[in-house]
Known about the structure:
mainly alpha, Growth Hormone, Chain: A, 2 domains, two-stranded antiparallel sheet, 2 strands, disordered N terminus
Amino acid sequence: MIRNTRSQPNPPLSEASRSTGLQAVLVLPEFRKLWLGQIFSQLADKFYIVLMVFLIAQYWVTAPLPSDGALAEAAGAFRFSIDSRAQLITLLATGIYVANTIPAMVLGLVAGVWADRWPKREVMVASNGIRAVLTLLAPLSLMDGPEWLGLSWGYWALLVITFLESVLTQFFAPAEQAAIPMLVPTRQLLAANSLYQATSMGATIVGFALGDPILRLLKFWLGSIGIANGEFALLPLCYGLAALSIAWIRVEETPRQEREQTVWQEMADGMQVLRERPSVRSALLQLVLLYSLLAALYVLAISLASAIQQLGPTQFGTLLAMSGIGLAVGAVAVAQVGHRFNRRRLASTGLGTIAWSLVLLGQLRGSLTPTLTLCAVLGVGSALLAIPAQTTIQEDTPEAMRGKVFGLQNNLINIALSLPLVLAGAVVSRYGLLPVLWVLAALALAAALLERPWERC
């Protein structure tokens, strides 16, 4: 239960709060509940995408492929071939991705305003609880009904559910980030963010790698005891466990002073924080640059894998997985020893590591072991940049403004993740892989030099 008393950002230091590192953070009971909620919520988000693709493949791409009709015309209008089953699945899955991405690109700042207006714990519990209820509606999409543009009404219903799921995520994310400084002493924020970053990457790898086999296992196991469509049980379970874990958190939150401000005025207040606090603005720009580079790497990984005889273009996920492993290793390292170093130097070191890795990836392309190693090193550099930047935003943003700033952060990061995905492939096709890697490396190096790491901190 949240008590309406003033928070204590600097409580008396116990032995645990004077310590740093992952062990010290994990002994904090309220943060541990939030972390468990994050694990279940992150896994549910990844399982959701896997379930949508699973349903498309199992229920809507089983008949002969359409050679005419509205769906074929729509594919032709976008110059998208559906000559094979895999291409049709990709086309329909793209609709799911778009429905999931639109709220993430446009609603973050608005959701952040409401995350500041409402108690953080209640926002997180409600968003996970409502998402659990929405996923319970998914089995209804398998019922017979009318068709539109050559597809069952159930597919369009899933697009609506996906859109609403993403809307709720935009409320959960800023409330979650704003809650961390309320549960963790300032000295331990770096370790807490490191743990969150490592967990997020682990959930991504586990969710996407094991999602399909888990869904098939649930369908088979529950089917063997007479329960049909068992694959639908996974998402309500994960979201429900996330809501339950967070519901037990006890946190002191500063009472919000009633102000007669519109949502638009509060959004302007959030922007004002960036103008008044250079440290927050700089950290946010670093995160936007980082996620732009990583999004471009998602596309470039296909070309890098194509040049490796042992992999080929379809195995580009191996390179991304190595980057994820490197990021997780870097996150653990930052958690354990990052507090000993100045954050500006950590950021410049991370940017320099990314630049160095991108240059060498271009020079050593075609070689399996060096490419895998450099992808892991690039992930380590990403952790050195992302975790201190996120911690700086949490520390230097006023408590009453955190939801707005984190909502804006989510907006900008999702745009940074989306635009390079659209542009990188076209640029590589026109100019080649090597010049693009050099340009990205130059951007990272320029950002590293702007941190002026040679100056005494």
